[in-house]
Design brief:
binds iron/sulfur cluster, globular, alpha/beta, 11 helices, 9-stranded mixed beta sheet
Length: 357
């Protein structure tokens, strides 16, 4: 049987039986506002009979996306306010984002850059714009790490990625190149040996950060694509977004984190949902996120524990927002100790430093 094509419209999704025909008109309005793409690899994971399927929830448009809340913003983490030249976001002193293209293999319904990515949105970096962005990196000696993001950099050809990595290899003060991607899951066949070779920049450490939100995304094809990267000496980390109805329960998060570690991918970030327009139906509260992290702390190895973080709205950067396991308590006359919570919820006193020690 021929393999399904990538679905790029509401009509494609109706034809595939993923949404009912009576929803077509409304979903066409959503698709006119926010890009749609569902690759065969992810489409095959959807159980069309399950109205709450966690894969469909991430990629199949929902009429709720047209409900915008007052607190939502078209640039929720302030990329544009921190962009000194086209394609660069310089938010933290020692690192920059380099956005090569604003297209992706799939379009996630909760994407914090949903106003920027997709066909007909922002153009990919032209040759002169890329030269200017690389010039900015060369001129700023404090830049230790370059993070390739977008859009998804790994939908670019091996030749183009090789050119960019080659240019970064020539910048002495850049020591680390980090690539954020959904491609090993969305289109694992794109992780070819030629692309993997192109990701290595001479003298630099390349890291690949995989975006994965549900354990079903880690198919054997995705595992093979990731193994190709790791076996080539490229360490992998993961980032996940906490999403209502997708992974906001302890068992799903635990299975996801264990599966990632089993693929030799260290869980790095669990993002609280950003205030992107039309995504409130997918966001949890921070209190729910903290409770989930506390549960994970009690159930899984430290290897499986990501940092729960929030990109502070307005471009102020990420901060950890996980639960605290420590609080200051009075100890002895005028002294201060700490009460620490263990992984079972028990509380223990850590004593103050002895006078004169
Ligand atoms: S792959 Fe990343 S940039 Fe692209 S739509 Fe998904 S979250 Fe947004």
């Amino acid at each position: 049987m021929p393999r399904a094509m990538t679905r790029r419209s509401a009509a494609d999704l109706v034809a595939a039986g993923l949404v009912p025909a009576e929803a077509l008109t409304e979903l066409e309005r959503v698709a006119a506002r926010y890009a749609v793409s569902l690759t065969p690899d992810l489409g095959e994971l959807i159980d069309a009979a399950d109205r709450h399927d966690p894969i469909a929830r991430q990629f199949v448009p929902d009429p709720a996306e047209l409900d915008h809340q007052a607190e939502e913003s078209i640039d929720p983490i302030g990329d544009d306010a921190n962009s000194p030249v086209e394609g660069i976001v310089h938010r933290y002193p020692d690192r920059v984002l380099l956005k090569l293209a604003y297209v992706c293999a799939v379009y996630c319904r909760f994407c914090f850059r949903r106003e920027m990515v997709g066909p007909g949105r922002r153009p990919s970096l032209s040759g002169p714009a890329l030269a200017a962005a690389l010039g900015y990196i060369r001129d700023h000696k404090e830049i230790w790490e370059v993070i390739l993001t977008g859009g998804d950099p790994l939908i670019l050809s091996a030749r183009r990625m090789g050119e960019v990595m080659g240019a970064l290899a020539l910048v002495d003060h850049v020591k680390v190149v980090r690539i954020h991607t959904r491609v090993p899951i969305a289109a694992p066949a794109l992780i070819t040996p030629a692309l993997v070779r192109a990701l290595k920049a001479f003298g630099k450490a390349t890291y690949v950060v995989l975006h994965a939100n549900h354990p079903r995304e880690l198919t054997s094809a995705a595992g093979t694509a990731c193994a190709r990267l790791v076996d080539a000496g490229i360490p992998m980390l993961s980032q996940s977004v906490l999403l209502r109805g997708v992974n906001d329960d302890p068992a799903t998060l635990e299975t996801l984190m264990r599966a990632l570690v089993g693929c030799r991918i260290k869980p790095y970030y669990l993002h609280h949902g950003d205030l992107a327009p039309g995504t409130s139906h997918l966001r949890t509260t921070i209190a729910q996120g903290q409770a989930l992290i506390r549960t994970l702390h009690g159930r899984v190895s430290g290897l499986c524990q990501p940092a729960y973080v929030l990109d502070i709205p307005g471009g102020h950067g990420k901060s950890p927002i996980g639960p605290s396991y420590i609080r200051a308590v009075p100890a002895g006359p005028g002294g201060q100790g700490f009460e620490i919570e263990d992984f079972k919820g028990g509380r223990h006193i850590y004593p103050p430093r002895a006078a004169g020690a």
